[in-house]
Amino acid sequence: LNCTCCDASMKDGQIESVTGFQLTTYKWHKVKAKIFIDCSGDSILAPLTGAEYRVGREAKAEFNEEFGLEAADQKTMGMSLLLQIREMDYPVSYTPPSWAYTFKTDEEMKNKPHNIRAINILLRQFYMSLPRALMEAARVDGANHFQIWSKVMMPLTKPAMVTVTVLSFINSWNEYLNALIFLPSTRNYTVSLGIQYWMQLTDEYNVMMAASASAIVPVIVLFLFTQKYFVESIASTGVKG
What is the biggest distance separating any 2 CA atoms in the chain, rounded to whole angstroms? Predict the structure, then answer.
């Protein structure tokens, strides 16, 4: 990771070794192997080894492919864009590029996410499984809506609330993509992102495996203390009446 390929040595028309410089550790690495696969994205091994290469997409007739273009072109893959959001102490205007699409309504973009998560469905199913007779009995006894919710609904919803807490903790504990995009400092990295960053700085695989295994310890401990409510909530969400 974060290693730039700088040189390659050839022997009998084949690649014997590849030399690269790792930016995070500032170390040179020389790799010898029988087979090398160029996954750099810019085909750096081609000019380093004098191999033949092409730019663009080939026509399907060139290699008897079933799917492909009728005629070759010069199009290549584009670069990825990483948008990072930071809190500033002054207004920052944003001008969208000319090629950006604008979706003003949900009908214009039907696949737009609506932040519907499994925990919302879990709570809804749990509430649907509670007998309405309990609420009606409390209403007959003179309880108002707040009293019904706090003294009848909430105690019965304890297993579901514990389950939602456990799932939310696991989701936050394993957070990777959002932390990678929005956290500018390594001091604030989540555990998953911190382990991935640390793996770039060392090649001690035994230590990496130990760190990965220790990362799941808090989740296991939390589940051991809440498994009674967790199992009860999952078992009762599909029961109605």
Answer: 93
